[in-house]
Amino acid sequence: MKRILVIGSCGQIGSELVPALQNVEGIEIVCATDKKNPQDGNGSNFACFDQLDVLDYDALENFVKDNNIDTIYHLASLLSATGEKYPQTAWNLNINGLMNVLEVARKNDIKRIVWPSSIAVFGPTTPRENTPNDTILQPSTMYGITKVTGELMITYYAEKYGINIRSVRLPGIISCETLPGGGTTDYAVEIFYEAIKNQHYECFLEKTTILPMLYMSDCVKALIQIIQADPSRMHHRVYNLTGMSFSCAELAHEIRKHIPDFTIDYKPDSRQQIADSWPMTIDDSLAREEWGWKPIYTIETMALDMVQKLRKKLL
Fold first, then answer.
1. For residue 68, which of 94, 29, 96, 37 has the smallest C-alpha distance?
2. Is 271 strand, coil or helix?
3. Per-residue pLDDT tens for 182-219?
4. What is the CA radius of gyration of the chain?
5. Whole-model pTM over 0.90
6. Residues 77 and 220 grouped into a single domain
7. Is 107 in the same domain as 194?
8. Number of structural domains found in the chain
């Protein structure tokens, strides 16, 4: 029985991807792993879990062999804002962790790998509106540098060793289940928690800052869909992905439709410079054409769902 390994299961994406994969593939098929133990809201509902550090090559290879793994989702990563504080740590985890996964795949006949990239691969020289799939990649953050390097690495391993590796450049991810972990787009999650608990939020970005976003339900759908897609129709290793783009002020306005007393202040910090180097809108037409990608949520339906679910969770 071939099984699926999810590395970084306790992160924002992994904690929701694992249950979704279990529903599709079966509980016994999906192996959830992370360096840390699950906490409330971050993988605490996993049917099964093992501790695994992706930087420990021997442990990773032994796990793959012992559990008959043929598919890997590699989600472990240090994100943009945290990566600027600890650039050496970001390089070590993001690059050496990916290299371990690729080498284990090469040596152990892994059939499929999904590794998320990010809009952080783009930089100040990239077109910021309707950013194309194939364009200039000159990031100004260590996180972005590791993601560009990773995109080159997976392309190399795919072409040289024939491994079916796919990647999506994720925008900001919005979720009502788990808090994000040190990204520049974190405000779009934090704002909902503070609006419901305190009716006020201090935003670390300017009100006019526009960034592309994706609701978690759509993100999980894409990560499952891309690995099930027909490889003969896919002519790229890495695909742009987006769901909606909005400014901080536009999101605050949408929240006020459901929480009329909500107020917001804007006090930009170091993350503003990162946000200013990223796209405002993304062209994800290649993903739509080659494997049928189509998001469901808009800013209106996302905000309504977030408020309804977080009210039940927090109040």
1. 29
2. helix
3. 899 999 999 999 999 999 999 999 999 999 999 999 99
4. 19
5. yes
6. yes
7. no
8. 2
